[in-house]
Write the structure tokens for this entry.
Amino acid sequence: MLVDALPTAEIHMIESGGTSFHPKAYLFKSKDHATVIIGSSNLSRSALISGIEWNLYAPSTVDEDIFETAADEFMNMFLSPNTIKLNSEQIDRYRKRYEETNKKLPFSAAVDPQTEIEMTFGATEQQQIADPSDSYVSSVLVPRPAQQLALDALHETVKS
């Protein structure tokens, strides 16, 4: 969607080679103000041992060194030999590799393609939002399919 919607944007994708890659960073800088919002916060084995996870809370203007460090790290990854510029051909190659890999994983057997799309992008139907003036109604939270798989795996881990 980004490649099609923003044809003048330079959009890259990192080929992590299986290393967990999960940083999310927003860097904003004006003449006299710099803001950094960074967060991944996974507590998985790969996140704690070998993955790339970024977390930073800076509630107001950040120190120039913090901003520059974040910008340098971003540029190191953006310009890395493992990073490729996205275009329609690269997306097609990635999609084919993803589909081949997904055939081998148990997740593909547990979740149908439409459910996978909904888990990734949210439900396509417009959801009804309760009127705030309505009286409070207690409801039970139901995990989404991917969350249920994660909960099941967590329970199995705790048992063993």
Observations:
- The chain has two domains: 2-94, 111-123+142-160.
- The chain is about 45% helix and 10% strand.
- Strands lie at 12-14, 25-29, 34-39, 55-56, 83-85.
